[in-house]
Amino acid sequence: MRCFVLAGVVPHATWSTALASVLLVALSGTASGQVPTDPLSQMEVAFKGDFTRAQIKSRLDRALQLYRLPITAENYSRAGSTLVALRKEIGPQEMDILDYMIRSHVPGVRITFPEAAGIAAAALARPGQDRSAGDDSAESVSSTPGTPGGLARAAAR
Question: How far lies 38's CA from each of 19, 54, 142, 146, 151, in Å?
Fold first, then answer.
């Protein structure tokens, strides 16, 4: 899938640079023009939607824990860059991708954060489905912890 390649080919040294570039474009019309320096504040500006830093941190912390990544500034930056890149490439908003990743996590299934984000973005971008109304099909994500969900089914394909 394109989304896995996208999330995996950007060298680690360029994750922050990529997110900073997105922010420079986003902030070019602001009064101050100041680019936030910490990854969570950068995400608050770069992510689509009206989310606070605390909301982003809460969901991102949960996703990082579920996908076995330590909560560090570097991992925040990498995760934010991955989510922004997926939104630009595939379409779903960053927080929707995080929500899908959290809801569909299956304990014991070994999948990386970028893989889970790519699967989530692809699942959310499926044509012909109204995301605002939810998805009641057999492919929908299980919200019951410990039961096979969308990521497990998608990873098995």
Answer: 11, 13, 34, 34, 30
